[in-house]
Amino acid sequence: MERLKVLVTRRWPAEVEARLANAFDVTLNESDTPLSAAELATAMADYDVLCPTVSDRIDAAVINGGGRVRLIANYGVGFDHIDLEAARSKGIAVTNTPGVLTDATADIALTLILMAARRAGEGERELRAGKWSGWRPTHLIGSALKGKVLGCVGFGRIGIATARRAHHGFGMKIAYYGRRPCDAAVAAELQAEFCPDLNGLLGKADFVSLHVPGGGDTANLIDAAAIAAMKPGSYLINTARGGVVDHDALAAALQSGHLAGAGLDVYPAEPAVPPALLGIENVVLLPHLGSANAETRAAMGMCALANVEAFARGTDLPNRVA
Ligand code: DGY
């Protein structure tokens, strides 16, 4: 196996770092802070393999600034932060880590659904601020989940895993919007209704959960018009990518009461959070925790490592996206 020179842009779980360092000539970004565009471009010129994460913007300027990198092995499933066209034009292969973070991300979608529906964030903030005056029948009343419609926008691995939890665990009804109907066995298992029209889904869902990839095709998919098409008193949940949602329109809909609540794990320009949301009570704001459990982060690392190893052996890359 070729002993490649590899740059890892952020710290990885210790066991994966150890395996990687055993097999390759690895440089770790010990500071665990984002590298600048200039540092990334320099890395493209100095290393054979770059292992970035969602917090690194690998755009055309970074890619064209290099000349040595032959593989970008992303630590994560989403790759909208990497310019695939630019990579292809330079003959650089790109891989991701699909499958291993499906359950963790679906768990966070359910966390957000439950927290938004049951006003858990509001309650915790009230209690910590010493403002809780005790139990009363009308205090922080939320919404039940049983019998409510979960509308998934996108019904790939993570959308289906979220729907399974909501349907089997909480008695929710499932509807989904996607390019085509899902597998018949999944549709039967979840009694899932296919909505070929996005507004049709938005008008019937009590909870809308986003499971589409980020990037140009889905930018602002949930814009002011889409939010207006959502059922009054419904909730918006986003564990996909921040750029899918118009956050000014979302803030206005939360403040006007058109939406009862929202739960967000992702933002358009992380780590910045759209300021309009910070002062709003009925939105749950998490810091991109979708895949953040020990087992999943280790599995993501092992998956990225498998791609680097395959590249070093000259065999087919298990998770090639470009
Ligand atoms: C991904 O993998 O794309 C997530 O957003 C980060 O876990």
UniProtKB/TrEMBL annotation:
It is an enzyme of class 1 (oxidoreductase). Signal peptide: none annotated. One of its GO terms (molecular function) is oxidoreductase activity. Residues 110-290 form the D-isomer specific 2-hydroxyacid dehydrogenase NAD-binding domain. Its EC number is 1.1.1.-. It comes from the Bacteria. SUPFAM superfamilies: Formate/glycerate dehydrogenase catalytic domain-like, NAD(P)-binding Rossmann-fold domains. Keywords: Oxidoreductase. Pfam families: 2-Hacid_dh, 2-Hacid_dh_C. InterPro entries: D-isomer_2-hydroxyacid_DH, D-isomer_2_OHA_DH_cat_dom, D-isomer_DH_CS, D-isomer_DH_NAD-bd, NAD(P)-bd_dom_sf. Residues 6-321 form the D-isomer specific 2-hydroxyacid dehydrogenase catalytic domain. PROSITE patterns: D_2_HYDROXYACID_DH_2, D_2_HYDROXYACID_DH_3. Gene3D superfamilies: NAD(P)-binding Rossmann-like Domain. Belongs to the D-isomer specific 2-hydroxyacid dehydrogenase family. This is 2-hydroxyacid dehydrogenase. It comes from Alteraurantiacibacter palmitatis.
